[in-house]
């Protein structure tokens, strides 16, 4: 049969913290949204189960601006799992004498991409071998080629008509109405967006779901 001689892995970054801009916005907006929910709860206007409401009331902001885009501990663990799967699937590739020239690593100027590459090799190699790998400079022009395309950049400057139609359409109206009923006060699209970000990032990083209580499963997965 065939024997693998090399592996080419084109990979997205692993689990990361939110952007600094998002973290600052969460710090500013989420406490006020929580106060609104608490006030609505006192007036019996909230339609969230007691356990979820209590968890939400205990919520503390888990992210700091210095976390900006960095890879999370849980993300590094995910990369370790990936390495173990590759070792089992291609055992012959990762045996024998180490040669630094066998490893070619590409990443972009975004810190999370280099940290993901580093986490991968840290799980794969000994510290001595890891230190011998030459990472080289970022390769934005190759790995983020879409940012070098003037046509795409020009098209991206204007919001597509379809996005505007969706945001003003019946689905978004139903979502805002349902969310407002659930949390007990009228929410905006921006409110929903920031609660959703808090939900998905906290679940991915800490497996905590306080803000997910504002959504049902279909809304989170859509």
From TrEMBL:
Q: Which family does it belong to?
A: Belongs to the histidine acid phosphatase family. MINPP1 subfamily.
Cellular component GO terms, alphabetical: membrane
Q: Which InterPro entries match?
A: His_Pase_clade-2 (IPR000560), His_PPase_superfam (IPR029033)
Enzyme type, top EC level: hydrolase
The protein's location, in the record's own words, is: Membrane
UniProt main location, coarse:
membrane
Which keywords accompany this UniProt record?
Answer: Hydrolase, Membrane, Signal
Protein EC: 3.1.3.62, 3.1.3.80
**Species, as recorded:** Ixodes ricinus (Common tick)
Q: Which GO terms describe its molecular function?
A: acid phosphatase activity; bisphosphoglycerate 3-phosphatase activity; inositol phosphate phosphatase activity
- Protein name, per record: Multiple inositol polyphosphate phosphatase 1
Pfam families, alphabetized: His_Phos_2
Q: Does the keyword Hydrolase apply?
A: yes
Catalytically driven reaction(s): 1D-myo-inositol 1,2,4,5,6-pentakisphosphate + H2O = 1D-myo-inositol 1,2,5,6-tetrakisphosphate + phosphate; 1D-myo-inositol hexakisphosphate + H2O = 1D-myo-inositol 1,2,4,5,6-pentakisphosphate + phosphate; 1D-myo-inositol 1,2,5,6-tetrakisphosphate + H2O = 1D-myo-inositol 1,2,6-trisphosphate + phosphate; (2R)-2,3-bisphosphoglycerate + H2O = (2R)-2-phosphoglycerate + phosphate
What SUPFAM superfamilies is this protein classified in?
Phosphoglycerate mutase-like
């Amino acid at each position: 049969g065939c024997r693998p001689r090399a592996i080419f892995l084109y990979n997205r970054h692993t689990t990361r913290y939110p952007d600094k801009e998002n973290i600052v916005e969460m710090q500013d907006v989420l406490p006020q949204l929580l106060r609104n929910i608490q006030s609505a709860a006192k007036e019996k206007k909230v339609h969230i189960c007691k356990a979820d409401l209590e968890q939400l009331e205990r919520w503390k902001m888990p992210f700091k601006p210095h976390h900006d885009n960095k890879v999370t501990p849980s993300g590094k663990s995910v990369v370790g799992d990936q390495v173990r799967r590759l070792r089992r699937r291609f055992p012959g590739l990762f045996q024998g004498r180490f040669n630094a020239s066998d490893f070619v690593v590409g990443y972009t100027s975004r810190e999370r991409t280099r940290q993901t590459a580093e986490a991968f090799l840290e799980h794969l190699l000994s510290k001595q071998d890891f230190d011998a790998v030459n990472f080289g400079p970022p390769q934005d022009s190759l790995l983020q080629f879409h940012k070098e395309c003037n046509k795409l950049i020009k098209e991206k400057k204007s919001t597509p008509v379809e996005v505007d139609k969706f945001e003003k359409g019946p689905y978004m109206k139903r979502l805002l109405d349902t969310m407002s009923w659930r949390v007990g006060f009228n929410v905006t699209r921006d409110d929903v967006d920031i609660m959703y970000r808090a939900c998905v990032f906290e679940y991915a990083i800490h497996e905590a779901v306080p803000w997910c209580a504002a959504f049902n499963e279909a809304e989170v997965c859509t």
